[in-house]
Amino acid sequence: MLFFDPLYFIIVSPALILAVFAQVWVKKAYSKYSRVATAFGYSGAQAAAEILRRNGVMDVDVEVAQGFLSDHYDPGKKVLRLSPDVYSGRTMASVGIAAHEAGHALQHADGYAPLKLRTALVPMTMLGSNLAFPLLFIGFLMQSASLVNFGIIFFGTVVLFQVVTLPVEFNASRRALAMLRSTGVVSTDELSGARSVLTAAAMTYVAAALSAILQLVYFLLRAGLLGGRDD
Q1: Adjacent-strand bridge partners of 62
Q2: What is the C-alpha separation between 229 and 221, in angstroms, rounded?
Q3: Which of 25, 20, 15 is nearest to 210 (CA)?
Q4: Which of 30, 76, 128, 168 has the smallest count of CB within 10 Å of its CB?
Q5: Is 101 tagged catalytic?
């Protein structure tokens, strides 16, 4: 059932196409705006630090991390980690990405509910991502409805995490753009560059959420839990 099933590709292909489009968009936007210097000379690390300072968030460290676009905020350790190009770069791409990650730190400081929910879902999601596909594979192979249902439940946690991620990421970008403007890190004319980079990055999260949802629909169809029993 799960081997080269045309139905799978029919259902999931829109998300695959969107994912490819999003990756191309991100690379194009990053490549373009990583060559556009900021008018006021802020680096990504300086921009993030200024945003945190202006909002009274003094207990978050800004550190350099290894890896290309490995930027993230660690709420457990209260550390904002920026990839080398973003940390040191004085470009619109670097400042925009750093401001986005600072937006997550502001969410944490404000007790933003979707971020709290996403953080709480992490252990369950890791378990679900590890168990879902083995259970589904064995369940469909052995025609065991119980194993398939358990696999679907575990995969549902992955879907939930991806869906909850959307408001978290979009809100962080809105905060980033607002703070870049209000702190004077960039000029008003430069905001369009940061917006382009953050919008492109947001589409990757949309593609991931859509992919997870459509895969869940496929599993529900094949399990006979949606649209009638698959005999």
Answers
A1: 80
A2: 8
A3: 15
A4: 76
A5: yes
**Annotated catalytic residue, options 50, 63, 101, 169:** 101
Which residues sit opposite 91 in a β-bridge?
37
Side-chain-side CA neighbours of residue 156 (13 Å): 7
Sequence-ordered list of residues with C-beta below 8 angstroms from that of 228, at least 6 positions apart, any chain: none
H runs (alpha helix) in the chain: 6-33, 44-54, 84-88, 92-110, 113-142, 145-183, 191-222
72: left (phi over 0), alpha (psi -120 to 50) or beta: beta
Write down the pLDDT at residue 3.
Answer: 59
CA 193 to CA 38: how far, in whole Å? Answer: 10
In the chain, % of residues over pLDDT 90 = 88
> How far is residue 117's CA from residue 231's CA, in Å, rounded to a whole number?
38
Tell me the whole-structure pTM to 2 decimals: 0.90
Q: How far apart are the C-alpha atoms of 213 and 40, rounded to whole Å? A: 43
Q: How high is the pLDDT of residue 214?
A: 97
Say if residue 67's pLDDT is above 90: no
Query: Please, are residues 139 and 154 in contact by the beta-carbon 8 Å criterion?
Result: no
The residues that bridge with 81 in the sheet, in sequence order, are: 63, 72
